[in-house]
């Protein structure tokens, strides 16, 4: 009989672990365990996920004789520990309804009390995150915990659910000795060692479930942190307007006010358009048409600064590509580098050519200048820094993975050529915003 008892306990722990692993395959359930403060709807969803399979386990024990399927005590305690007092109370009552219908009169009130008590334990814990530290091997930490408690008076709240679960199971076992056998289902043995295994199995069922769900929570937390990090990196990479451009533009306005107020007013309007665009950094993708308008304002200011003889702009853009979406602030840093490092040192005749065409579902972007050009060493120095082409390449890598191409070539005295190919996006995808 005791050998069968051990086999039943092993199957019981295995069933609890299998059920916990099955539930985390559902996205809705993963969101429930990831959320610490749940509203009423989420608490109802938690009950809907856990109560039916646990109630079915009770029926399999009643009608099939498979005692290891009955996780009434463990399920009630788990619901209270995860969902709180109300969830534990309702969950325990609902799980034990088949047993109550089988004339096991103490099953429902006892399961409800277990769930309520577990919920009270959750409420008593200052940090709800400590609930998730309840693992299958937490008992190994009891000796060092006792040492810290005695020497430093420093406790560990994760021990509270462990001791509470064991104490409640012992109470249920002892209660079963003083009532008629059919009033309450309980795994019984006259051997104290085997009864210790019964208590341990109940603790392990709860701890294994929490451990499995906590692993999922950790994975979701890492994924969320990666998304936050990606957003922060994208925001940082998007903020690429050189402060010197703003200072130079304001100096240009100051000079124009004296002899050409209308042109000064035009420069201020274009600068306001640029700054207004910079306030929209939450937009990862924008229509090419908007990006071109932004570049036009930027280049108009630069032409006024340098003069039409020193800076000329030539554009060749496929009209059918204007509604395609491209990464925000994709063109500006490349054109800024072309002006700053290529054309600014020239005395006159500086030119920038911008060509954008559609090709087999992709956008081909070419930016050429006839500036001073750079040696390979200088190219690495200029485009490998924190602002400029290196940022463009990093943003494209984050957004497109290996679905983009970028090539930069430069020769001293002849100029620089930049070639980019990216997938053509017909609309903004919600996940990309």
What does this structure look like?
The radius of gyration is 34 Å and the shape is elongated. Helix content is 61%, strand content 11%. It is built from 16 helices and 7 strands. The longest helix is centred in the middle third of the chain and has 47 residues, at 192-238. The strands form 2 sheets. Strands 2-4-5-7-6 form a 5-stranded mixed beta sheet, covered by helices on one side. A two-stranded antiparallel sheet has the order 1-3. It has 2 domains: 2-233, no CATH class; 244-432, Histidine kinase-like ATPase, C-terminal domain (Heat Shock Protein 90, 2-Layer Sandwich). It starts with a helix and ends in a 10-residue tail after the last strand. By secondary structure, it is an alpha+beta fold. Helix 9 (159-176) packs antiparallel against helix 10 (192-238) and helix 10 (192-238) crosses helix 16.
């Amino acid at each position: 009989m005791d050998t069968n008892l051990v086999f039943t306990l092993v199957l019981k722990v295995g069933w609890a672990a299998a059920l916990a692993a099955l539930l985390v395959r559902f996205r809705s359930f993963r969101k429930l365990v990831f959320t610490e403060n749940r509203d009423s709807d989420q608490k109802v969803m938690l009950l809907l996920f856990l109560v039916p399979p646990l109630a079915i386990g009770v029926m399999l024990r009643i009608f099939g004789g498979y005692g290891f399927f009955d996780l009434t005590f463990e399920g009630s305690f788990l619901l209270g520990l995860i969902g709180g007092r109300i969830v534990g109370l309702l969950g325990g009552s609902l799980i034990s309804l088949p047993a109550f219908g089988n004339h096991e009169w103490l099953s429902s009130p006892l399961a409800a009390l277990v769930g309520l008590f577990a919920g009270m334990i959750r409420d008593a814990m200052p940090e709800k995150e400590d609930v998730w530290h309840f693992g299958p091997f937490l008992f190994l930490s009891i000796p060092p915990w006792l040492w810290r408690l005695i020497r430093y008076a420093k406790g560990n709240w994760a021990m509270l659910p462990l001791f509470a679960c064991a104490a409640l199971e012992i109470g249920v076992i002892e209660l079963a000795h003083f009532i008629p056998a059919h009033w309450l289902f309980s795994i019984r043995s006259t051997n104290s060692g085997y009864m210790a295994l019964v208590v341990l199995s109940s603790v392990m069922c709860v701890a294994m479930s929490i451990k499995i769900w906590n692993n999922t929570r950790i994975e979701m937390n890492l994924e969320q942190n990666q998304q936050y990090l990606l957003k922060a990196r994208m925001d940082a990479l998007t903020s690429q307007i050189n402060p010197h451009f703003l200072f130079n533009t304001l100096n240009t306005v100051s000079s124009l006010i004296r002899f050409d107020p209308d042109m000064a007013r035009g420069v201020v309007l274009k600068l306001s358009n640029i700054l207004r665009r910079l306030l929209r950094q939450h937009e990862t993708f924008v229509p090419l048409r908007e990006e071109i308008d932004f570049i036009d304002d930027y280049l108009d200011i630069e032409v006024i600064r340098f003069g039409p003889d020193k800076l000329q702009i030539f554009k060749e853009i496929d009209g059918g590509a204007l509604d395609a979406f491209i990464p925000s602030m994709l063109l500006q840093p490349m054109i800024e580098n072309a002006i700053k490092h290529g054309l600014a040192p020239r005395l006159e005749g500086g030119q920038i050519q911008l060509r954008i065409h559609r090709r087999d579902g992709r956008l081909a972007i070419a930016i050429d200048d006839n500036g001073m050009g750079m040696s390979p060493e200088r190219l690495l120095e200029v485009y490998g820094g924190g602002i400029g082409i290196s940022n463009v390449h990093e943003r494209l890598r984050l957004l497109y993975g290996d679905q983009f191409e970028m090539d930069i070539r430069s020769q001293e005295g002849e100029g620089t050529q930049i070639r980019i190919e990216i997938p053509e996006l017909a609309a903004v995808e919600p996940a990309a915003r």
